[in-house]
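Extended Data, panel c. Modelled sequence:
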Amino acid sequence: MITISRNTYGYARVSTREQNEERQLFALRAMSIPEQNIFIDKQSGKDFERPQYKRLFKKLKPDDLIYIKSIDRLGRDYEEIQNQWRLLTKEKGVDIVVLDMPLLDTRRGKDLIGTFLSDIVLQVLSFVAENERTNIHQRQAEGIAAAKAKGVRFGRPPGPLPENYHSAYMRWKSGAITGTAAAKECGMPLSTFRYKAVVYEKTIV
């Protein structure tokens, strides 16, 4: 039997690179959570400060209910997920519902067997979440390495050369002017002029 909680909250977390904020919010709003009770963090995985989560945590009282879309919204790794689950359910005494996994609904099965099964599912899912995140990072690294091996260049494309670059380059190459003078004519640092000269030489050979 599901008990009625005093307050209902929703929590969503996205990094600055992700585009699934609306997907999480759509799922939370479908639970009829008051808009002011939905907390959203947009933090990268590096800092993981989560100011909105901290605000939510301070508001929580025993028997409150939190909805999250998936288990990995609680933490960035297996240990963090387990720790936050313990803090919320044991220390704060609130209930959690994971929308992507109906078995993770602490309102159900408050007896020993129900708690035991919920703990097992939590451990498995939090491990899977961390493992999948590790695999994604590994695939990204392998993809970048493979692309670089094929000559793919990352970052912003180089800007166009100034119109007088060829003239300055040829006079510098012939020794008529110094590299510093040539770079000044082109309006760029000497190091940039020399770097572009290496690339430029390949195009005129």
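DSSP finds seven helices and four strands in the chain. This feature is highlighted in the accompanying rendering.
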